[in-house]
Design brief:
With about 260 residues, the protein is an alpha/beta fold. It has helices spanning about 20-25, 40-50, 65-75, 105-115, 135-140, 140-150, 165-175, 190-200, 215-230, 245-260, and strands spanning about 5, 10-15, 15-20, 55-60, 85-90, 90-95, 95-100, 125-130, 160, 175-180, 200-205, 235-240. The strands form 3 sheets. The protein has an 8-stranded parallel β-barrel with strand order 3-4-5-8-9-10-11-12, surrounded by 5 helices. Strands 1-2 form a two-stranded antiparallel ribbon. It starts with a strand and ends with a helix. Bound molecules: NADP nicotinamide-adenine-dinucleotide phosphate (NAP).
């Protein structure tokens, strides 16, 4: 797949990224069907396949159960082949989420993620919003902590996985990357994508397949066509643990992007 700039970060990402919620968490998730977590062999095969297909971007978070632990253990020397996006702010324990956007917790989370992922640097760290985007950005320490981590070279870029237009716009103004929702049923955050395109900031799309509620291959194709018709999209993060879905997603997306060139 042809790589695209992640805004002005200097990094180049595949238009399809691999979401890894399903590598580590199967409770309190919004997918249409329940599922077993994949075993280690399945994850290694999926990562190898993704790489073979030209994907270079992994999206994880401390709140995705054992996702980070498994990536750290299973990537090993292959870590350098990937750009890794992680998050701060959401803590998922015993089936319940809580949030901490303080300066100290943000520093501690990234330091822990570096150890868990067995890496010296995380390519991009996003604030994992609880929905109160502006309050987090204006009144909590996470933004300052991420700036400090970037200054120290422990992260290469920062951003927010935002949930509101106001929060997305502020993220575009203050940070390197915004992760926003866009799909066939939900377009409220398009002003954020437009602002990011104007400002040259990175845009990651989440829930582009409506968390799996999209219908069949034609629904997937239409979803890709819709998302990539929007300005400024760097990469759409699609979560899958099904190798056949991964293959067909790459095929469908290449077809859509080929036609839009
Ligand atoms: N920061 C945040 O607040 C936040 C929130 C949500 C998500 N995310 C990130 O974004 C990623 C994607 O979001 P998401 O997982 O909610 O939604 P999504 O990518 O819209 O949907 C993922 C679901 O779609 C299914 N799927 C994938 N390809 C398919 C295909 N070709 N045909 C049919 N079904 C298909 C997957 O099932 P199979 O496994 O069966 O393929 C999975 O259940 C996550 O993994 C995560 O990394 C971030």
């Amino acid at each position: 797949m042809e790589l695209r700039p992640l805004g002005s970060t200097g990094m180049r990402v595949s238009p399809l990224g691999l979401g890894t919620v399903k590598f580590g968490r199967n409770e309190q998730v919004k997918y249409p069907r329940g599922f077993e977590l994949p075993d280690d062999v399945q994850i290694v095969q999926l990562l190898d396949l993704a790489q073979e297909l030209g994907i270079n971007l992994l999206d994880t978070a401390p709140a995705y159960g054992s996702s980070q632990q498994r990536l750290g253990r299973l990537l090993g020397a292959r870590r350098s082949r990937w750009l890794i996006v992680s998050k701060v702010g959401e803590i998922f324990e015993n089936g319940v989420s809580r949030f901490d956007f303080s300066y100290a917790h943000t520093l501690a989370t990234v330091e822990q993620s570096l150890r868990t992922l067995k890496t010296d640097v995380i390519d991009c760290v996003l604030i994992h919003s609880d929905g109160d985007d502006l309050r987090i950005l204006e009144r909590q320490g996470a933004l300052d902590a991420l700036r400090e981590l970037k200054r120290r070279g422990l992260i290469r870029a920062h951003g927010m996985s935002s949930k509101t237009v106001e929060g997305g716009l502020r993220t575009v103004a203050e940070m390197d990357v915004v992760m926003a929702t866009c799909n066939l049923d939900y377009n409220d955050e398009l002003p954020v994508l437009e602002a990011a395109a104007r400002a040259g900031k990175g845009v990651l799309i989440k829930k582009g397949l409506m968390s799996g509620h999209v219908q069949g291959a034609e629904g997937v194709r239409r979803s890709f066509a819709h998302v990539f018709a929007q300005p400024g999209v760097s990469s759409m993060i699609v979560g899958t643990i099904n190798p056949a879905h991964l293959r067909s997603n790459v095929e469908l997306l290449e077809h859509v992007l080929g036609r839009s060139r």
